Batch of 3 targets.
Target 1
Amino acid sequence: MRRSLRSTLTVLALVGTGALAGCAAPSPADPGPSTSSPSAAPSPTPTPQDAADWAAERVAAMTVEEKAASVMMMHAPGTEPGAMRALLDEGIAGVILMGDNMPGDEASLAALTAELQVDPEAATLVGIDQEGGIVSRIDWDPAPAPWVLRDQPVEAAGDAFAARAAALAASGVNLNFGIVADVTSDPASFIFDRVLGTDPQAAGDRVAAAVDGERGMVASTVKHFPGHGAAPGDSHVSVPSASLSLDEWRAGPALPFAAAIEAEVELVMTGHLAYPSVDAAPASLSPEWHRILREELGFDGVVVTDDMLMLQHNGLAEYADPGENAVRALAAGGDLLLYVLPADPSEFGISVDGLAGSVAEAVASGRIPEARLDEAATRVLELRRELASTDSE
């Protein structure tokens, strides 16, 4: 993806002045050969600027509702492609594969993912949480778990995530939500077994190596920004709160994210967790955290939310309306909204049309400037275009 990243010296300067983490739980799966189809009329591989221009032109031709649908990524249970294809037919950007989507072998998963590639010009985002260890979807991941890697040399993390990405790419998965940039040394933390380092520097070194390892095989995501390790509690069932000040965050939990951005990570996942000294709202709904991510850390890729249903699972009244949650996430600066849906999404009041309608109403009322929605839709389409180009090489 096209980058205008700051140099290493700039990031180090931010650290010196004090300026400087996904989804659900475990279950296995399986990868095979890449199956997305090249364009019927072959053309030269687009340059990054070509991809950006192409995406902007395509977004300009969309209705507001189409743009809103294009910034959603969803899960549908089961190992048959029909339900996932139905969601894609509604215009969403892609699907996230969970444990219940995993067929019995690698070849079957490759066949499933092949059925999801419906647009030769823009790859369907096929994402997965493959961290290794306790959060695994495929059971033939050859790489060690994070808690093993943090006790090995930094290079081992790069090798592990290269092997992991190769296994995913072989099955048609093109996006991994698998690199945990959170930091904690507390064995009681629910995320302790998933972190790549127990101090910010060690975590940052291994996170950057993991991003480098995945490069060219899958798009990489680091999570859960701005850092779950400092926020006790599990964001699957609550909105954890961190007691750190902004300067304390810059000197600690920020470092692995800064390292990942310097390594040109394609996506950053925001967490449903709060740092009240910065913003009382969860980071996924916080304009200030999105500003910090863009302006202070220099990230210009795709910002993806953690599973949006987690906000409803916590039982707080202010997050009970999925349409309102979607509006707040996009208005704050998110680009891609992630939904791990049950068999009956209406259980949580969710449909593509319903969410797109809420976003369209917010655009009409001015709550979301249309330029903000265009920006999100363009970033997501640019990523999809580049992944399609990679597949056709």
Target 2
Amino acid sequence: MKNYFVKRYQENDYAHWNAFIGQAKNATFLFHRDFMEYHKDQFEDFSLLVFENKKLVAVLPANRTGAIVYSHQGLTYGGLVFNGQSKLTTVIKAFRSILLFLEENKIQKLHLKTIPYIYNTKPAEEIQYALFLAEAQLVRRDSLSVIDLSHHNKLSKIRKRGIRNALVNGLIIKEEEVFESFWNEILIPNLSEKHHAEPVHSITDMKLLKSHFPNNIRQFNVFYNDKIVAGTTVFESERVAHCQYISKYEKGENLGSLDLLCHFLITEVFSDKRFFDFGTSNEAQGRKLNKGLSYWKESFGAGTVAHDFYEVETANHFKLENIFV
């Protein structure tokens, strides 16, 4: 393992990090430093770079809380990022080096969330095998509702009825460059009334992220008689269109706004993507399922993709020794 070297991310690594992310097989724009650092004041960054000799072979977007390092808690997904030429043995050695580095820096545990396979540009589940070897514990599993757009997906009768209602009601869909109307008139009131919660991102956050990633962050709104009634914020990566936020505020009316919007996005705007990701319908760290929300997504033809979260003792780096035959 003497050829492997781990260091913490520093500002002068900005260009090197982003260049690596740009050619990795299991990364999206969420791992770009401009995305990660929009909320840098909320987290103690503990991102790592792994070198084999002088060559960068892996990075870990991460933050620290006390004696625990997490796959960056400000990101939807995470894990160890490596390039398309990385071999399984390289990933295992890189992961062992990370665990050893963390133990030497008084870190007791690493919480690592994976990146769902739908976001990978080629098979890239080497880290899952490394986690198995290190006897990591599965501590959370979310269920993502995902449509494989390479296949024909049958709409349920109730979704077809909703789309017909939307057309009869004369609903109009617009892509907009600003977020104020959706945030202030739909998302914030809906989350407040139904869940006593607020959006993770503020309007200021979204403006900043949109300025950095104008082609990856898109806002679609639905209007009824010139008034916004629903919308979704989509994070678009190479293979996946993901609904980061999706909400309606129809005040008891059954307009079919979200049925029309999602059908339009799936069949028109993002039909050339491989996957359409509605996201999770889970609560309580994956141990509760909102069955109504899950059913609504499945009625568009979505199936389930597991998103796993692991905990591993850093002292377990020794379990990754002497495994090659």
Target 3
Amino acid sequence: MLKLSEIWVYPVKSLGGISLQEAQVTDRGLELDRRWLLVDDDNRFLTQREHPQLALFRPEIIEGNLKIVHKELLEWIIVPFCLDVERKNDTIKVVVWDDTIDAFEVSSEISNWFSKIVGFSARLVYMPDESKRKVDPDYAISGEEITSFADAYPFLIIGQSSLDDLNSRLDEKVSMNRFRPNFVFTNGAAFEEDFWRNFKIGNVPFAGVKRCDRCVMTTVDQEKGVVSSKDPLKTLAKFRNFGNKVLFGQNLIGLGVGTVSVGDEINVLDKDR
């Protein structure tokens, strides 16, 4: 029996994640997932690809707020959840890859805190509910599906067996956090998620729409905030290279809303093979 073993949200894109026992599935991803984003002076998104030290910022959920702690400096700041209610700032246009998205700066105080620690200008922005960023139409189902500040899709799932297979080929094992999934499952075969098309986690339906392209971000050591080596990307490229893209994990679109919990059964309804 396939079981949901881990649930992860990453409230601020490219910062650390939060492990949850249950989460709400919304129309744009898990609740809180990638609703905040750091941008530069040109309003372009900042990620660990260029700034691996972002991994050292660790969010926590504290009494209806985000508490973001720098792992090494132990400095912290509070970011409120209820930004749609408290919003005072004007909407700005921010860029994630080829998408231009409506957002607003949370506060100059919070932006200054991030800028001071990273050593360059970084503003924290939030995606309000009225901001609708559509997924790639080539992989949409109805054409109306939306996502957050995630790279492209609302959800990502990876099997524990897939990571175990990869680690069996590595000199130094890596943790699942290198790949930043929302869902991890156990009891399946390695890479079987590649072929899932329609399935349910508990009672919530999902569709697998595209295997996930991997990049240099997988080489960032999430505990140290540095690029540790060319692995695991180098090794993945040897056996998971499809059309010059290194693939690991399956991108998903939600087909409903509801609650998912660690331990939920996963029922695969339709596969490619």
